User: Which sequence fits this backbone?
């Protein structure tokens, strides 16, 4: 009887260790496949390359830079007030997207232009200009 | 004496809250908090809900709820043995929360002048669903704090029958509330955010999922807590759920998150909450480990309900750790290595989906436990064969999602048949809440997979009168009109969808809020059981045409229905347990 229990225990421990190993492997793999770098225009420029694979570009939408092009293409400029990168996106822009507001774009860099395939507009806590009127 | 103090505490807090609410309703913009979150054009309902729209007020509401729960506990359970320690624990928590509120998040600060108007409530929050979501969420967190206090009481005084009974009651209420809060958030996201999704693995969403997962494992561990191993699990999970809910508060309110919706960033708040978290963590986990020497344990017998419960807990904890890692890893790398990363949603779904299948397999095993027990060898052989078949199919070119759908559909049918057989042979279903609960989880999984696999989206450019054919239906932009409301102006676009002679209408708007000029879009949705037509108005072009995002989302109604069934099962299970 005691031997049987012991054997069962060993199987159990082996099974759990194996599962642990398997889970760690899958988790690391999932991380590797799904981590994107998040860069600001300055950081992109610092890389000093014309092309860069999938990453997320974050910054503010530059004032007066949004331009509706043919079909559903739209171009705008992302700036961090030190450097800027122009972005081209084909599709409908999300509600929160507007000039002078935060934006995160997923895509890749090609010939110094950022081609976005997904746009996320960031929700700033202080998204409105503060207007104060003093009452006497 | 203690109970009177708790009533007094609640009364005073209630007065404070009423006072703040009154300032909102009176448009008293000399209060900074009112100024930042309201305006004189805001409808009354939202002036009231603005109370909990930002950090200071929402935290005050949470404190009010906690104080209220303390009072209710004393009102209903004053005679119980566990009340003194439970009271002490909650009082301890309240004390530190109040310190935090007073010193870092005072909603009663004022200007020296009286502004004529405020900067308006965030338009995203001017929605009934989102107005209700935060209070329900805070209630969930608060209820888990109460549950935690009962667990602590048990650690000191031992877990007797009475304590278990009340623990199950509070655990059930907490679980129900937190699940409801998550559901409300998802419903809001789908109907209001305009992206056609209900869950984005956004850090703020994940942060609520963590206590929910721990809470689920916790509730299940209460079932067989006579077993020492499950008792240890139960205590550990009860503590963890509470700690995770504080961690959630810290992360959301400290500004460390870069997510679509996060509260103000203020380092002093973050540090305070982190210290609070550390304090509670050390105290409770320290207590747990020192007392657990007394909980000597043996592994439950193989293939027994207790064993399946332990497996269930392990899987849930693994899912929890995966979500935890995926949510905190970017934060850690940003804070310590100054490198910003973002982790895509596929990380979560690719890892968690197989684990959900394992959970579903556990549901099935639980239903046929008797058979499995008496045919152990056959069971092992059959499960190895089935696992190999699925593995083989998975490795082959077959779409894994389709495979998953088949598996889940089979599980659904098996569970349904089993329940029907039991019902017709014994005229009754034992443990109805368990059957219904598990069934709705499987149905939910099925609907989610369906939605993920078959939904489609396109972006188009249309002028009034234009129409396009997509996925077997014709979408037509009927008209565009301009309207004005109390605090916003809007462009209203009317659409029609024609599919095999059935015509549905959809309306999408783009609103400009008069104060601050914020622009939001209202989605147009037409739902049926199997699919939703979903349309979002985009931007206007020079030639008068508009960009439009058009989606066909499958299984959305089924997702809501299965979630509501789950909530019903939770509620029924909680009430039934106590013969009320």
Assistant:
């Amino acid at each position: 009887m005691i031997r049987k229990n012991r054997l069962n225990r060993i199987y159990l421990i082996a099974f759990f260790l194996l599962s642990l190993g398997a889970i760690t492997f899958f988790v690391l793999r999932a991380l590797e496949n799904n981590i994107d770098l998040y860069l600001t225009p300055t950081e992109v420029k610092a890389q000093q390359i014309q092309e860069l694979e999938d990453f997320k570009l974050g910054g503010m939408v530059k004032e007066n830079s949004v331009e509706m092009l043919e079909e559903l293409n739209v171009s705008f400029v992302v700036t961090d007030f030190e450097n800027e990168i122009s972005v081209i996106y084909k599709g409908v822009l999300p509600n929160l997207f507007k000039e002078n507001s935060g934006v995160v774009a997923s895509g890749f860099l090609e010939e110094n232009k950022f081609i976005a395939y997904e746009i996320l507009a960031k929700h700033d806590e202080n998204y409105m200009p503060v207007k104060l009127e003093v009452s006497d | 004496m203690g109970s009177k103090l708790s009533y007094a505490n609640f009364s005073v807090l209630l007065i404070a809250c009423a006072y703040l609410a009154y300032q909102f309703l009176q448009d008293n913009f000399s209060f900074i908090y009112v100024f930042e979150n309201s305006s004189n054009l805001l409808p009354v309902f939202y002036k009231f809900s603005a109370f909990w729209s930002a950090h200071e007020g929402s935290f005050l509401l949470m404190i009010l709820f906690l104080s209220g729960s303390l009072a209710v506990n004393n009102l209903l359970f004053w005679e119980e043995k566990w009340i003194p320690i439970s009271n002490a624990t909650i009082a301890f928590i309240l004390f530190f929360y109040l310190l935090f509120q007073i010193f870092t998040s005072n909603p009663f600060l004022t200007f020296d002048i009286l502004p004529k108007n405020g900067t308006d409530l965030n338009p995203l929050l001017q929605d009934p669903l989102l107005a209700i979501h935060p209070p329900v969420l805070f209630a969930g967190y608060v209820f888990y704090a109460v549950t935690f206090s009962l667990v602590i009481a048990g650690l000191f005084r031992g877990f007797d029958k009475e304590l278990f009974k009340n623990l199950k009651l509070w655990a059930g209420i907490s679980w129900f509330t937190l699940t409801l809060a998550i559901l409300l958030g998802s419903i809001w996201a789908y109907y209001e955010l305009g992206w056609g999704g209900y869950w984005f693995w956004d850090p703020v969403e994940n942060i609520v999922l963590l206590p929910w997962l721990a809470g689920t494992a916790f509730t299940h561990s209460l079932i067989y807590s006579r077993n020492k191993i499950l008792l240890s699990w139960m205590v550990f999970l009860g503590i963890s759920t509470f700690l995770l809910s504080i961690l959630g508060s810290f992360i959301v309110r400290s500004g460390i998150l870069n997510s679509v919706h996060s509260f103000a960033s203020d380092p002093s708040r973050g540090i305070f909450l982190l210290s609070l978290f550390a304090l509670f963590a050390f105290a409770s986990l320290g207590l747990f480990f020192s007392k657990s020497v007394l909980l000597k344990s043996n592994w439950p017998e193989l293939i027994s309900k207790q064993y399946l419960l332990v497996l269930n807990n392990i899987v849930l904890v693994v899912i929890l750790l995966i979500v935890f890692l995926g949510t905190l890893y970017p934060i850690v790398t940003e804070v310590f290595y100054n490198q910003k990363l973002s982790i895509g949603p596929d990380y979560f779904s690719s890892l968690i989906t197989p684990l959900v299948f394992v959970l579903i397999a556990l549901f099935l095993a639980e239903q046929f436990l008797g058979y499995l027990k008496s045919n152990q060898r056959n069971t092992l052989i059959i499960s190895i064969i089935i696992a190999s078949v699925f593995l083989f199919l998975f490795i082959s070119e077959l779409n894994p999602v389709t495979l998953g759908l088949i598996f889940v559909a089979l599980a659904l049918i098996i569970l349904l048949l089993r329940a029907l057989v039991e019902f017709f042979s014994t005229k009754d279903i034992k443990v109805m809440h368990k059957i219904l609960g598990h069934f709705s989880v499987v149905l939910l999984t099925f609907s989610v997979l369906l939605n993920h696999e078959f939904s489609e989206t396109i972006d188009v450019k249309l002028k009034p009168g234009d129409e396009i054919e997509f996925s077997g239906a014709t979408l037509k932009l009927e008209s565009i009109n301009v309207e004005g409301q109390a605090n916003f102006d809007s462009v209203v676009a009317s659409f029609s969808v024609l599919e095999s002679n059935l015509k549905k209408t959809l309306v999408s708007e783009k609103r400009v809020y008069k104060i601050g000029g914020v622009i939001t879009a209202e989605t147009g949705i037409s739902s049926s059981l199997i699919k939703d037509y979903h349309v979002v108005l985009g931007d206007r072009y020079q030639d008068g045409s508009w960009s439009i995002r058009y989606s066909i989302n499958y299984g959305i109604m089924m997702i809501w229905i299965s979630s509501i069934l789950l909530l019903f099962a939770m509620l029924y299970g909680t009430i039934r347990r106590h013969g009320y």
In short: Chain A has two domains: 1-35, 38-121.
